[in-house]
Design brief:
The complex is a heterodimer. Helix content of chain A is 70%, strand content 2%. Chain A is mainly alpha-helical. Chain A has one domain (5-366). Chain A has a two-stranded antiparallel sheet with strand order 1-4. In chain A, strand 2 and strand 3 (199-200) form a beta hairpin. In chain A, helix 3 packs antiparallel against helix 11 (254-280) and helix 13 (309-328) crosses helix 15. Chain A is globular, with a radius of gyration of 21 Å. The two termini of chain A are 30 Å apart. The relative contact order of chain A is 0.16. In chain B, the strands form 3 sheets. In chain B, strands 4-3-2-1-5 form a 5-stranded antiparallel beta sheet. Chain B has a two-stranded antiparallel sheet with strand order 6-7. Chain B is mainly alpha-helical. Chain B has 3 domains: 2-112, no CATH class; 125-218, no CATH class; 257-479, no CATH class. Classes of the chains: A mainly alpha, B mainly alpha. Chains A and B meet through helix 6, helix 7, helix 12 and helix 14 of A and helix 14, helix 19 and helix 21 of B.
């Protein structure tokens, strides 16, 4: 522990890589998208900016998943709910920001006019303020995760049992949000956003700023995750993953540790969801479907659990392939995804990064 | 007021008919035909009532013309039947050439349509098929038109079927509610009250309505009898509703039970949740679909009994797929339940897409054979469909079969031994890998049976399994593992509770409430309702 914080987090090579990433996302992408003319070979279209921005949101989610699954051994099959709740929080602000430019020229969001509602429900109060919406983005999923986690971990529910009830949780939430009466636009969710903080939401400049914010959030999440797993807290978490009973016999109560990392993970997901919605332009209850949440787990598994860079690579790989596959051969995507699930669990239990690591360490031993 | 007028008019018409109608006249009285085509709605309803009471088969083409919008009015004084090509006078039958261009459509409102249905029903009362007569008398029950009385009396005199006779009596009572004789009215009220039919309730209610200052029914004692009869009907309707709720609950429970039973076995044995379990159900349903098609094309004589052939096929196909899954994938992931969960999810995706590629993304048609369609009417508002009854019986049989296999066979003994203590069972010579494969095949086969049953009540499509997977997990989680009893009670409790709640809160809220309650319940009893007692160290 005598090392400085910077040295504790990353080695020099990793810091350099992070700097390169920052330079690419914060300087190069904006320049290539905005300054380079559209007909140039180096121009980066807004489509790509949005796509990469979206994938970076997923990467944050995968990282959050890794903190609970890879480092603490809690497999959540319901992380989609936190992502979606964050998205809905941001979506509420964006819906209010449409103002009277909706189809019905009303102060209320269009879907409420359609349902013949006269006033805003209480939970929509104050959502026209950006800061309050941001607070909701963090507080609502955080609180839900805290309460749910408290009860689940206190009863020492773990393993597949925990996974199954998280799945039931997101499924119940999806059913709830599908109802029109819940007040979140039902089936269609929120869409047709016009502006964010006064800036047109489809303008390339806004897109680039959102992209930069997402990249910053991703780097922040990575540093935070690294800070946690290299700390004493991180060691306790890994110990809980490997032998929870022994941790308890050694005099630790696992509850606060698990609860902390679980809630933090949920909040990270929510932030990713809040960044996702303005870039993609839609949020609907489909994001809470159990299938989506399981996919998050596979991003983490492909990249490599128990490493922080792994989930980022996994999310990038799977979603990159997905956006290519679903255009090129849509009918084969599920085969591919299914096989990835099977093959990775059978032959790549430590993921791509874990596999590379073990190859390198073998080479070093031989040398 | 209008109904009274209509009734007077009918009476007058019947009188008129009696005066001018003669036995030699082979078609309905011209006045009636003209009234049907050119009169206002009340007059038309009255004419229909007369035609219905006469049950004159020659009036049928006219009624059909009215139903098919072929009856036209010309200048308000001629009735014409125009079928789109030729026109003829509805009274004389003389063709009109060329087709007149001043034909007006006869506008029928809802009341006229109802009266028309009643008129058709009157003709059907003499039909040779029992089902047609039943439907006819049900329609007539609703009308309560006194003009129908002679017709009903005639039908009662010749009818042999006890169920039709019962219904005819009720219809007769409905038509006698306004009979001038007080005792007849009281008897009619009693019959209607005893019938417990919702339609009878409305008819009785009409007696209590006020007609200006006075009641429709002048006699206070008769009104009191009607009130009593209504409350009697209400009680029965309520009982019927509750019984119906219970029945749909038990029916849902039987489906949940079939879906969860196999899962309970595989989960209990290996501690892994098989996410592809829903897809094994789906494969069972598709196997049923294939058997149905094969029998239809190659052995139409046996088609009626295709579910009996489908049951073993569905079991074998799903069991085979399950055993393959276990051999190829699950076996290699022992001791890593979370990874198994993900791998089986991957398998489920492949299976879904595979079925989509083979059979298309649309739902396929699985028909009920005749002996499974329809239902048994227990009360006026409670029909128990045969297919649901059959599934309940089937679920009971499957549970009994499973418990026999688990408690009375050598395989069952091994399965229980491995479930309780894998190492120890291995030490005393149980070939645990073989038991795993067989037990997994057994659980998967039961999923196939569930698919066979589900095909009889729901849509069969590639996503079939997805809609049952979370529910069956909940049954397993609630019931605990290691005992069939837990699964049975959990399925029953969930099914009945869910359906009863649905009546109060609506389907979606009920489902959400149930899920939340399970999550809360798990806090209290993390091992489920019926945990196996014993000392377990985890990991």
């Amino acid at each position: 522990m005598n090392k400085t914080l910077t040295a504790r987090l990353f080695g020099p090579k990793a810091w350099a890589a992070l700097l390169v990433f920052a330079a690419v996302t914060l300087v190069m992408v904006p320049v290539l998208n905005l300054a380079v003319p559209a007909d140039s070979a180096f121009h980066l279209s807004t489509y790509w900016v949005t796509l990469i921005g979206k994938i970076m949101c997923y990467a944050i989610v995968a990282l959050a998943m890794d903190l609970v699954w890879g480092y603490t051994g809690i497999l959540s099959l319901g992380h989609g709910i936190f992502f979606a709740l964050g998205g809905y929080g941001m979506g509420m602000y964006l819906m209010r920001a449409i103002g009277r430019e909706g189809n019905y020229q009303s102060d209320l969001p269009d879907f409420m006019v359609f349902l013949n509602w006269k006033t805003l429900p209480w939970y929509w109060q104050g959502t026209e303020h950006f800061l309050w919406a941001l607070a909701l983005v963090v507080l609502v999923p955080g609180l839900l995760a805290f309460v749910f986690g408290y009860f689940a971990f206190r009863s020492r529910i773990k393993g597949v049992y925990f996974s199954i009830i998280t799945q039931a949780l997101t499924y119940a939430a999806m059913l709830l949000f599908f109802r029109n009466e819940t007040g979140f636009g039902g089936n269609n969710g929120f869409t047709d956003f016009k502006r964010i903080l006064g800036f047109a939401i489809t303008a390339p400049e806004t897109r680039v700023v959102l992209f930069g914010l997402t990249a910053t959030a991703l780097m922040g999440a990575l540093l935070l995750g690294r800070f946690i797993v290299t700390s004493k807290l991180g060691r306790v978490l890994a110990a809980i993953r490997d032998a929870e009973s022994r941790v308890m016999f050694s005099g630790y109560n696992p509850l606060p540790y698990k609860l902390f990392i679980w809630t933090l993970s949920a909040v990270l997901c929510a932030i990713a969801g809040a960044l996702y919605v303005p870039q993609v332009g839609i949020i609907n209850p489909g994001e809470m479907s159990p299938a989506n949440s399981i996919e998050i787990a596979i991003w983490t598994a492909v990249g490599g659990r128990g490493t922080l860079i792994g989930p980022l690579i996994g999310a990038g790989l799977i979603n990159g392939v997905k956006s290519w596959f679903t255009v090129a051969f849509p009918e084969y995507w599920l085969y591919f995804l299914g096989l990835i699930f099977i093959l990775v669990t059978l032959w790549l239990p430590r993921g791509v990064v874990g596999q590379l690591q073990s190859w390198f360490s073998k080479k070093e031993k031989r040398a | 007021m209008t109904s009274l007028l209509a009734r007077l008019q009918t009476a007058a018409l019947v009188l008129a008919l009696g005066l001018c109608g003669s036995a030699t006249l082979a078609r309905p009285a011209p006045e009636l035909v003209l009234q049907l085509a050119t009169g206002d709605n009340d007059a038309r309803i009255a004419a229909l009532g007369t035609l219905a009471a006469s049950a004159d088969p020659d009036a049928l083409p006219l009624l059909e013309a009215l139903r098919d919008d072929a009856l036209k009015s010309r200048g308000g004084n001629q009735a014409v039947i125009y079928d789109g090509e030729t026109a003829r006078d509805a009274i004389t039958g003389k063709p009109l050439v060329p087709v007149p261009d001043d034909l007006e459509d006869v506008m029928t409102n809802n009341r006229v349509t109802v009266a028309l249905d009643a008129a058709f029903a009157a003709f059907d009362l003499a039909a040779p098929e029992r089902a047609t007569r039943l439907a006819a008398v049900r329609t007539l029950q609703e009308s309560g038109d006194p003009a129908l009385l002679p017709l009903l009396d005639k039908a009662l005199a010749t009818e042999k079927d006890p169920q039709v006779i019962d219904l005819l009596r009720v219809a007769q009572a409905g038509a006698r509610l306004h009979h001038p004789d007080r005792a007849t009215r009281l008897a009619a009220i009693e019959t209607l009250g005893g019938s417990g039919a919702p339609g009878a309730r409305a008819q009785l209610g009409s007696l209590l309505e006020k007609n200006g200052a006075s009641f429709v029914e002048a006699d206070a004692a008769v009104r009191e009898a009607a009130r009593k009869a209504i409350s009697h009907i209400d009680t029965w309707l309520e009982i019927g509703e509750i019984a119906g709720g219970l029945f749909t609950g038990v029916s849902l429970a039987s489906i949940l039970l079939l879906a969860a039973l196999g899962l309970a076995i595989t989960y209990g044995l290996m501690g892994v949740i098989n996410m592809a379990h829903g897809e094994l159900i789906m494969i069972g349903a598709y196997a049923t679909f294939l058997v149905q098609n094969l029998l239809r094309t190659h052995a139409p004589g046996l088609f009626e009994f295709y579910p009996l052939f489908a049951i073993p096929v569905a079991f074998l196909v799903s069991a085979l797929v399950g055993a393959t899954m276990e051999r190829l994938v699950i076996r290699h992931l022992y001791g890593r339940p979370l990874e198994t969960l993900l791998a089986t999810w991957g398998i489920s995706l492949v299976l879904i897409q595979g079925v989509r590629s083979l059979f298309g993304a649309q739902n396929v048609m699985v028909e009920n054979p005749a002996w499974l369609s329809g239902g048994v009417q227990v009360m006026s508002n409670l029909i128990l469909p045969w297919n649901r009854l059959a599934i309940i019986a089937f679920a009971i049989l499957v549970v009994m079969g499973m418990s026999l296999i688990l408690t009375r066979t050598r395989l069952g003994l091994f399965v229980r031994a491995v479930t309780q203590n894998r190492q120890m069972a291995g030490c005393v010579g149980v070939a645990t890998p073989r038991v795993d494969t067989l037990a997994f095949a057994l659980g998967s086969g039961v999923a196939g049976l569930a698919g066979c049953a589900l095909a009889q009540v729901g849509n069969v499509g590639p996503d079939l399994g997805q809609s049952y997977i979370i529910d069956s997990f909940m049954v397993v989680v609630l019931g605990g593992v290691g005992q069939l009893a837990g699964t049975v009670y959990a399925a029953l409790g969930l099914g009945v509770f869910n359906k009863l709640l649905e009546g109060v809160a609506g389907a979606v809220l009920a489902k959400i409430t149930v899920l939340v309650l399970i999550i809360v319940f798990i806090q209290k009893r993390p091992q489920g309702l019926f945990a196996v007692k014993g000392r377990f160290a985890d990991n």
